[in-house]
Write a sequence for this structure.
């Protein structure tokens, strides 16, 4: 087993705190019409090593558990938000990731942090149940309901693990107060509240915690409120004469940028996360079908090569435009919500295509958004230019929406990496891992995975189980792996592996059975969807990019003898890249030598790296680029030929993590 995966004593110390409390309300399953095909493992059941495990640990240690809690709580005490105030979202965004981090590493120190965060927040709850940052006269305006949504999500995340009935009661009081102000009997159309620009989407997304609250309490008033919110989507209001019609237009496959509501990517997907939870309760097939069709539209029209979308935070037919220079492209909040939405659909359907998309987003857009030491995040993550740390939206809180949100997707990874199914287990993420399971026959067993994936395509998994038992292991076969070979104890798996599906290995498993997988890591040249002669390279789930640290050509400096180059692709559009085992730049995870031809037809090799590492010096201002004109010219590749406004001189100012945050770290 990988040395990083050695069980930690503190996990055992805290395990009791994660057990359900006897005598509580009936199990959620009694209130659900639909059971998930795949479910996350119990908290504390999984350890991840390797590159992804390191990034998870850095996120927990340097961002989530290093948070100054007082800064997040202060706005709830002051309640002085008015126009454009959304400080109320920060506690809930941060806290939901803190609960994921605690569930992954439930140490006493982490328990102290989450307990303090909840205690301090509840001290701000008013007698009528309100927890928010707005004065009474500004309730329901701008981002007030949006903030209450995140308060509820945070409280419910704490209750899920700690099972303290006082926390559930506090969450109910928050919801009851909202129902009083904006429920069916209030005379208020919730879908026309909130900031006018996003046409009720932000407020409508409170559907998710309201549905979750019904799942946990079984109280009809919360289901009624949830259904009321969805019904409001089809009613005309002062912001949208036709209503935002989310379900109807998703079912009709209306282009996202033409939907009646605002095409705000983050808030729209948040509404559909709530719709997924409501589907679990009601079994209304239209809710599932609408969620599936919307996600198909997003993949078809918006998701770019690196697994995210949006321009200036809105849907924009971005898949066709992704090779253009983008100002404010690929917001981190969009990446996070996209991954959370995919996770919902993976749970509900058990379809591997959602895990495929999760993997691409994780290895590219998400990893690229986190600073190398895990302490900060970018606001936008483009496909060329520089990596720029997020600005501070509210200096008093020392936070931005994307810095608060990024860890939620990173720390969601253990939830979908290995999952349980009715007939066994599913392997969705290939990384060094140690997972603990309960078999269909109710015996405990473990699965240890050893691999360098996706650096290479070799994966080895070993089962440890007390007694022989028949069950299924579902192995995700990525859609990009055209030829996958599986062996069990050295014997080749005889059934055909189909890319984009699960290979279901159903057999009687014995102790120390070994599964070996060889994925096809062939690289391919991808043409720009817009039809212009631009190209990119994808190797497995990883997108490649040029980085000026590897190819340091600048105008008038170190210009190579031949100016124009083209990727040297084969007839099937594959390209024979070579992995560099010892990358020349230590901050870069993977480096490859890529064959190109010059104007004279001569072959050369040029270095490219994984997209997540491209530009990741952050403070040095190195430039990167994914989409490459064919042929390309290094005299212009990194400079202003496409309108970049980037100064690449040695004395150019470099982006930095906000100075106030650095000062806070120094004081600590």
């Amino acid at each position: 087993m990988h040395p990083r995966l050695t069980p930690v004593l503190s996990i055992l110390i805290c395990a009791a705190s994660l057990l359900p409390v006897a005598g509580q309300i009936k199990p959620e399953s009694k209130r659900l019409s639909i059971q998930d095909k795949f479910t996350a493992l119990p908290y504390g059941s999984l350890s991840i090593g390797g590159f992804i495990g390191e990034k998870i640990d850095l996120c927990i240690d340097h961002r989530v558990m290093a948070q100054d809690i007082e800064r997040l709580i202060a706005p709830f005490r002051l309640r002085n938000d008015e126009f454009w105030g959304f400080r109320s979202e920060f506690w809930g965004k941060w806290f939901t990731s803190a609960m994921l981090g605690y569930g992954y590493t439930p140490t006493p120190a982490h328990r102290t942090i989450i307990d303090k965060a909840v205690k301090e927040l509840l001290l701000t709850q008013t007698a009528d149940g309100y927890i928010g940052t707005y004065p009474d006269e500004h309730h329901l305006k701008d981002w007030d309901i949006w903030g209450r949504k995140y308060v509820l999500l945070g409280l419910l995340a704490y209750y899920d693990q700690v099972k303290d009935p006082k926390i559930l009661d506090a969450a109910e009081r928050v919801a009851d107060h909202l129902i009083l102000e904006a429920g069916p009997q209030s005379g208020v159309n919730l879908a026309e509240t909130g900031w006018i620009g996003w046409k009720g989407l932000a407020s409508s997304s409170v559907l998710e915690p309201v549905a979750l609250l019904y799942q946990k309490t079984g109280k009809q008033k919360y289901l009624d409120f949830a259904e009321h919110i969805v019904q409001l989507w089809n009613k005309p209001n002062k912001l949208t004469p036709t209503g935002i019609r989310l379900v109807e237009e998703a079912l009709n496959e209306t282009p996202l940028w033409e939907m009646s509501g605002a095409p705000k990517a983050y808030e729209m997907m948040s509404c559909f996360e709530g719709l997924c939870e409501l589907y679990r309760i009601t079994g209304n097939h239209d809710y599932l079908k609408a969620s599936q069709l919307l996600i198909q539209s997003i993949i078809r029209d918006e998701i770019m090569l690196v697994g995210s979308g949006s321009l200036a935070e809105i849907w924009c037919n971005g898949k066709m435009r992704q090779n253009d220079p983008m100002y404010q492209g690929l917001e981190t909040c969009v990446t996070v919500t996209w991954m959370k939405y995919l996770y919902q659909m993976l749970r509900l359907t058990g379809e591997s295509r959602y895990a495929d998309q999760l993997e691409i987003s994780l290895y590219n857009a998400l990893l690229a958004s986190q600073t190398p030491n895990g302490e900060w995040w970018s606001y936008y993550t483009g496909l060329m230019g520089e990596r720029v740390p997020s600005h501070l939206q509210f200096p008093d809180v020392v936070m931005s929406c994307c810095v608060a949100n990024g860890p939620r997707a990173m720390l969601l990874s253990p939830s979908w990496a290995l999952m349980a199914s009715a007939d066994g287990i599913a392997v969705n993420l290939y990384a060094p891992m140690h997972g603990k399971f309960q078999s269909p026959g109710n015996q405990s067993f473990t699965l240890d995975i050893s691999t360098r994936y996706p650096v290479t395509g070799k994966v080895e998994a070993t089962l440890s189980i007390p007694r022989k038992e028949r069950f299924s292991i579902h192995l995700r076969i990525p859609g990009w792996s055209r030829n996958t070979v599986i062996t069990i104890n050295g014997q080749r798996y005889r059934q055909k592996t189909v890319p984009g599906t699960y290979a279901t290995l159903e057999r009687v498993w014995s102790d120390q059975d070994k599964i070996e997988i060889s994925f096809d890591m062939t690289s391919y040249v991808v043409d720009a969807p817009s039809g212009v002669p631009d190209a990119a390279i994808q190797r497995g789930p990883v997108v490649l990019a040029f980085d000026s640290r590897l190819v340091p050509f600048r105008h008038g400096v170190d210009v190579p003898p031949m100016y124009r180059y083209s990727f040297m692709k084969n007839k099937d559009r594959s390209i024979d890249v070579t992995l560099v085992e010892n990358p020349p730049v230590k901050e870069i995870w993977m480096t490859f030598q890529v064959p190109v031809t010059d104007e004279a037809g001569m072959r050369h090799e040029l270095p490219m790296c994984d997209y997540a590492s491209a530009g990741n010096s952050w403070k040095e201002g190195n430039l990167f680029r994914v989409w490459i004109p064919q042929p390309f010219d290094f005299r212009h590749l990194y400079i202003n030929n496409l309108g970049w406004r980037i100064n690449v001189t040695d004395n150019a100012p470099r982006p930095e993590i906000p100075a106030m945050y650095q000062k806070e770290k120094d004081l600590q």
In short: The two ends are 36 Å apart (CA to CA). The longest strand covers residues 469-477. The domain at 3-419 is CATH 1.50.10.20 (Glycosyltransferase).
